[in-house]
Amino acid sequence: MSSNRISINDIDLDEIENLPTIRNLPRSKVRSKPTANKSRLCVQPIQDEIAQLVEQPDGEDHFNFTYSASHHERQWIVNSLGGFYDSQWLDDVLHLIKGGKEAHVYQCLANPSVPNLEQPYLAAKIYRPRMFRNLRKDHVYREGRQNLDENGHAIINSGMIHAMHRHTAYGQELLHTSWVEYEFQALCVLFEAGADVPHPYARGNNAILMSYIGGDDVSAPTLNTVDLRQKEARQLFDRVLHNIQVMLDHHRVHGDLSAYNILYWNGDITLIDFPQVVDPQVNRNAFGIFERDVTRICEYFASQGVKSNPRRIAADLWKAHDLRQMPEVHPALLDEEDETDRAFWQSQSGS
Ligand SMILES: Nc1ncnc2c1ncn2[C@@H]1O[C@H](COP(=O)(O)OP(=O)(O)OP(=O)(O)O)[C@@H](O)[C@H]1O
Ligand SMILES: [Mg+2]
Are 172 and 238 in a shared domain? Predict the structure, then answer.
């Protein structure tokens, strides 16, 4: 089992410009800025260049944290998480759990006032400014779905829609916010429904705060790095399928589900990483996306000794939820052995 901690040297933050500012933070318990406590003062001078590029939030002058970051990364963290600090969600940023092309996730020390904490930590996921622009075939996921503003409402303003359509800087910022909102909403709905997902606590335009999975020193590994005993593999496979059903019950297909997006800790699983969720009722690509999710899960569990038929599972679940493949041919009505049916299936699922 491997730790998810990586070195600060692995970080390359070349996209700090275009960072959206934080909005929509719960302000019910705003922290008054400390004046006496010098240990919280940020002593880093703001370079003129950065100051021009990045709007500094309220918390910048006193949000200091333990994690040792490069200057650029520190600015990025302060801008993305400073509002959470001000609102007393978190008191410190401790470690980088994982930094990648799309987002960085940090282990943070929670403020003791945060409700229902099982341990003193929170995980903060900060999105890279251009991550969603780099998402391959993003239209496949966006098909049929409305873009959401920072309050989670569908964007109906024609100027905003035009900006997104034209991919202006403003439009791209709106699209970025919408992806983050989709992830946060999916977490809220699925957590409420009892799915095995992190407890979502708060969101900014560029970050999500959720329960942290792992121990004091090591965060939970992703399932793809774990070898399971056969009995446990069978149980966890059933558990993942249960979660997939809960998602369908709530009109969500994960869209990037695999053992890489499932955390494993103390024998339990937690599904993560939801910005690309699709609605199976409106997205015409949904079945193909769903079948791919199911297939990837089955492939991992096959490597752990649990054999299954992903196509059959996907078709049966789809049918059980009364969902239709578009055009109007239900996958369960197709015969895998029939050449014509098979060709139709492949054209529909993109395989
Ligand atoms: N709530 C959490 N608790 C502990 N670790 C987490 C949590 N959420 C995410 N992580 C860690 O951060 C990593 C990246 O998270 P996530 O998959 O949501 O972002 P991502 O940018 O899509 O990353 P990737 O491209 O690697 O899938 C995860 O693989 C996991 O190691
Ligand atoms: Mg991921």
Answer: no
Give residue-wise pLDDT tens across range 111-137.
Answer: 999 988 989 999 999 998 765 555 556
Both 148 and 241 in a single domain?
no
Q: Please tell me whether residues 189 and 228 are part of one structural domain.
A: no
Give a yes or no: residue 179 inside a domain.
Answer: yes
Give CA–CA dist 79/126, Å, rounded.
10
66 in a domain, yes or no? Answer: yes
Write the CB contacts of 75 (distance below 8 Å, at least 6 apart in sequence): 16, 46, 50, 54
The answer to whether 80 touches 104, Cβ cutoff 8 Å, is: no
Q: Select which of 149, 273, 322, 338 is catalytic.
A: 273
pLDDT-derived band at 74 (thresholds 50, 70, 90) equals very high
Q: Specify whether 61 is catalytic.
A: no
- Atom of ligand 1 lying closest to residue 211 CA: 1
Ligand 2 (ion): residues with CB under 5 Å are 261, 273
14 a catalytic residue: no
Q: Could you tell me how many residues make up the chain? A: 351
Which pair of structure tokens corresponds to residue 74?
Answer: 């520190």
**Which residue's CA lies nearest to atom 18 of ligand 1?**
273
Residues of the chain above pLDDT 70, percent: 75
pTM of the model: 0.78
